[in-house]
Amino acid sequence: MAPSAHSLPALRTKPRAIFFTDFDGTITLQDSNDWMTDNLGFGVELRRQGNKDVLHNGRPFRDSFQEMLDSVTKPFDKCIELLLQNVQLDPAFKEFAVWCRENNVPIVVLSGGMQPVIRALLVHLLGEEEASVMQIVSNDVKARPGKSINEENGWDIEYHDDSSFGHDKSLEIRPYAALSDRPVMFYAGDGVSDLSAAKETDLLFAKAGRDLITYCETENVPFTVFHDFSDIHKIVRDVVEGKTTVQQAATGAN
């Protein structure tokens, strides 16, 4: 039986293209989880070492990420409050999001972060209307035993699945990829939480200077580099309008 629009929500409007994207450090200039770890948790150096262990030493992202978040003990509502004050949107993303909505290109946010954080930031940075049309697939937040999430050391991440990533983004993309007649699929990301999605779409956008490029070059994964969403906007528009192909757009780091 063919997948339905209910099981694959991005197909509901019969789009010609779907734009899957990471959230932290991709749509935003700062990674909300990194910001919490650096400013409220165990700091920059231990976080960077954790990323290196995932990228080069095969450590599960899930375990590294858990350690990061365990070091943040501030109540969850206070964390949200601080993130709203300190996390900024890629300056070109809002224009891209409006173009996608007007041209029937669904944006699906696939995040290794936490749904309440992402939803709060999207509403704050984009407005309720623009944020409401985006599907978010991510981890969640739960209270620690005997506590509420808004107490000191009261919250914990609730992973989306049992994979080594905590959220294996490929699991969301593959049912779309398996369709015989499907839209063109894009993915944009920047870091180690995106490794599971890197090989799954027709064109991968990898953020300049970030860990995802290192992985793609090591694993010979085709990609095109982006600095901000104006780069992505131009290429996605040209592909959707038939002015270029995804193969022509996969220019690597050049």
TrEMBL record:
Superkingdom of the source species: Eukaryota
Protein name as annotated: Uncharacterized protein
Species assigned in the record: Xylaria curta
Lineage: Eukaryota, Fungi, Dikarya, Ascomycota, Pezizomycotina
